[in-house]
Amino acid sequence: xxxxxxxxxxxxxxxxxxxxxxxxxxxxxxxxxxxxxxxxxxxxxxxxxxxxxxxxxxxxxxxxxxxxxxxxxxxxxxxxxxxxxxxxxxxxxxxxxxxxxxxxxxxxxxxxxxxxxxxxxxxxxxxxxxxxxxxxxxxxxxxxxxxxxxxxxxxxxxxxxxxxxxxxxxxxxxxxxxxxxxxxxxxxxxxxxxxxxxxxxxxxxxxxxxxxxxxxxxxxxxxxxxxxxxxxxxxxxxxxxxxxxxxxxxxxxxxxxxxxxxxxxxxxxxxxxxxxx
Length: 277
What we know:
SH3 type barrels; 5-stranded antiparallel β-sheet; Alpha-Beta Plaits
């Protein structure tokens, strides 16, 4: 009986404590109700504002870059930032300053960890954004980068795809393209051809020079208004090296390669007919 009275008294004390806590929480909830309504209204306004800004930013970036991926990325980033700001403001209205501080600290730690874990991926994304805005090349351009030459087929945030003359699809990370030199042949309408021929040393070198210039003059792809020269620049034993230079239009794919082929075949054929080679 004695212990029963003690247990009953303790249980009554626990009940009073629980009801007291619930009562205090109820009073606090009633007092916080106006702030809760204001916080919900603030969060709703930020959500509507974020949706509006997402559409405006998407259209603006689309006009600047003409790229769906970049437009969607920037618009989504702005939308997320505005939603986070609205959430923090709502928590401040509810006087949950410690929760805001904890969330900011957690977001910073998570961001730092993700940055170290995906630094290569992040570098590729940032490089893709810079490539999209600066536009050193576009889809359809013939470029040379990282030891590959081909036509740009697709530009994404992470990588760029080009098709080589052999029909191979080459995917290059944007970080490698952004950090290394790029030769854009499509942005260079004119390109100079430099061909070196090895001829025997003789008194017929002026004749050889005339034959080479005649071959260049007959070629329809060579631009007539640009310099066309033949220079003998070095002697190697009993041979002399002749450097043939001319210019072609580089806007169409394959023009440079075809002209080089035609000049080599034509010059060697005519020099052999003349008995110089």
